[in-house]
Amino acid sequence: MSNIHIQGPTTMGEVVMKTTVGDIESESSAKESPKTCRNFIQLCMEGYWNDTIFHRIIKGFITQSGDATGRGENGKIYGGPFKDDYRTRLCSCGRGLIAMANAEKDDNTFQFFFTLGSTSELQSKHTIFCKVAGETIYNMLELEEALVDKVNLILLYPPRLLKSIILNNPFSNIIPRIIVQESEEVKDSSKTKAAAVRYFNLLSFGEEAEEDKEESVILNKKFRDKGKLAHDHLTDPKLSSQPAVETPELVNKKRKEDRSSD
Hints:
It is found in: Nucleus. This protein has six helices and eleven strands. It is α+β, with helices and mostly antiparallel strands.
């Protein structure tokens, strides 16, 4: 089987993401998406994503991560959301791509996702800035095998991004910020427990579940923020009411509604 799974522009930045499913090597297209790649490299350098869960997994589509604090704090290196940075040479044509998750146009911060299959419906909606390198794509694909309680829609043991190691930094002038880390006590406590994570409705992909809200609050307190879904904490109302990434089902539904209104 060939190791080539995606073709694209010449890459510059290289990062190894240490995860609970193995190493995932990434190559960033710094020339194509400079602002987004700088955001990625700096957050890796600062250790912002250390011990962060993959809080959303849709088999054959995407797996999402990035909200390290569970409250959307400290991860905005530009002081707020930054503009989309996509180029026509980078397309959502297969698995093994890394792109920014957002709620709307020009609303990028720190959440990102891996593509687990073809995601052509996301083209020109999300900035693609990296691709998974070599055979580590098979480790990435292991992310979609996470156990899900299909009755309660809960990720039982969400995979984690443990830390990132920068092998090649195309931005020599990055100065890491001082980020207030969570106490070691909270981190140690979260590692010893099986994190039960609320798994949002796959069709709405980003809207909070209407039922069992009280149960979710209890679970969130129990697992001390680390086991919470990002959208349970973010203060930005856009992210709790709008999908960060639209599923194919939602895209088709919108198309039908547009046709019926014509």
